[in-house]
Every structure is written in C-alpha cells, then in structure tokens.
Design brief:
alpha/beta; seven-stranded mixed beta sheet; 18 helices; globular
Amino acid sequence: MDDHWTVGRVAELADVSVRTLHHYDDIGLVRPSARTAAGYRAYSAGDMERLREVLAYRRLGFGLREVAELVGDPSTDAAAHLRRLRGLLLERRDRADAMVAAIDRELEARAKGRTVTPEEQLEMVGARLYDAIGGAYPATRRSDPRIAARILGALGDARTVLNVGAGTGSYEPTDREVTAVEPSAVMRAGRPAGAPPCVAASAESLPFEDGSFDVAMAVSTVHHWGDPMAGLREMRRVARRVVVLTFDTDEPGWQDRFWLTRDYLPEFAGVLAQFPSLAAMADAIGARAEPVPVPWDCADGLFEAYWRRPEAYLEERVRRAMSVWTRVGPQAERRAVRSLGDDLTSGRWAERNGDLADLDAADLGLRLLIA
C-alpha cells in the first residue's frame, strides 16, 4: 500500500482541483507532509485523513474558517469526526424528508384550490425534523407527573444532571443543578424563561470532560440521534450514572402492542428499522431496563399517549408534535388518519379495542434504562 500520494493523484481521488489543494496548503488547512522519491511534496496517510474531514465538512456547507476550527479541535479524533459527520448527514436527510412532506402538503392544498399562505410557503424551506415539529411541542408535549416520578426516582441523589437531547425541557428536575444539551435551534428557543442553561451540541459529541456530572439523562430522544450507541457511550463517559427513557423493539411482534401501529400505521416499524435493540443499548451503558406504563390520561403528548383517546390522533395539532408522522410521510399519515376516522365513526375501533376502556395504564414498550 502507498505510504504517500502525489498532489495530482489526491486531486483525482477526491474530485477536486489541484488549485484547491494548493489553496488548502497555502492557508495551512491541509499541508502535504510527505516526500516522493524525487523530492516532491506528497500526502501522508494522516494528511489524507485530515483532507477527508475537510472536504466532508466543506460539502456540508461549512466555511473554511469553521472547517479549520472543527478539524483543529485537539479533543476530537477521527472517530469523533465521523460520528459528527454522520449526525450532520442524517440531520440533512431529516430536513429533506420534512421538506418533501411540506411540499406534498402545499401541492395537496393547491390541488384543492386552497390559497397557500406565505407562512405555509416558508414552512418548506425551513423544514427540518425537529424544526418542523418543534413549534408544536409546547401545545401538547409536557411532563406527565407519573412518568416524571419514575425518572426522578431513577436520578436518585444526583446533584448535577446533564439532560441530553433536552428539547424544550420536559422532565428536567427543578431541585438539581441541570445542564441541557439540544442541537435544534427551534427546540432551544422553545425552552421556558428561567430554564437551565442549554448547550447547542449533539449527543454523539458532548463537549464535557469525563465524569463531569453525577448523572446524564435522555428522555424520548435516543431514536432521533444520528448514532444512538455513540451517544449513549458519550453519556456514560461524561457522567457517573445514566438514565434513559426509550423504546423496546426486542420483543417479537412488538408492533402489535399498540393498535395504532398494528392496524393503521405499519410504517412505524420502518421508522425504527435501524434502531438499536434494547439489549444492545442496555449493554452499552451497563443498565437494567424497567417498563414504564403509559397512563390513559397521559399529559405528555408522545406517540403512544392517546391509546385510550383515539380521537386525538385525528387532530393535526396533536400529530404535528409527534416525529413519527413526519418520518412516515404524508401519504401514510393521510391513509392512517382516514382509516381511523372511518373506524371510529362505524364503531369498528371500539369493537376491536373495547377491552382498553377498563385499563388505567398500558405497557406499550416504553422502557427506562438505569445505569
């Protein structure tokens, strides 16, 4: 294997001009440190790795000054850069998915002859998964006291708490020293006045020293991370204990636990197709798993919250605060809502799910990992 690569060969491999490489050399961004047998400057393996990072960040739209700061961070190794790049690419994919959903909604409105407002038009260019749903969070997403009690109990006597993927601040304890981490600007803007300080960062690359906190918590957020396992390991690195509220997909036939995914939205399984198993997540942080039943009158409008109040899923404002609907796309959403509405009107839903009326809480797969 080559131990150095000429400037021309590197330009060919990376699909950039020699002039670009010379510019990177001139400004000190990527300088070839090897020499050919004839004495010409060439790129070593380490130079190639740095160039890969520079070009990846550039193609994600970062300016040269930002790229220099990113690749020059002494605390970030190649694996950390890859995790960050992966997260950025997945965020871009989510933004594209949300933009497609916004375009589909506008096309449908125009096809029906409805006037599309300027606000709706701008929704498309501003769409990103959490940016698309974050504005709806305050209306329906808040701490449920029974779920909160389980989380607070798991935090134990911890005094310093890191809330990873904190969103608008649900379930943050008020009697501890809390630091929040949230990558979405919309979510950060939605945090209430007086909320704990919130850092703009991703779970996969937490900007804290090892063991900085007594406990790190993450509530209903792991499935949104670009690399859930890397994020969990980061939580374990920066905190002595870890508490995570997540979802169990290990149980055979787990999709059938909830009538909405069983009868109306089979696409939900595809949303979590690449999600790590509960066992793998527990192993990553050395945790035990405890079931968290969802109360029938759950105050937190999470996806499973309305299992005994099916009419809620017909409401646009309720669905918009649930990321699942954005991920499955407008066609699946319209079909599911239409079918559910028909079954509620005909009484078929009640016939299938009449046994739920006597339940105060249901195990729908929520799990608390405690390490």
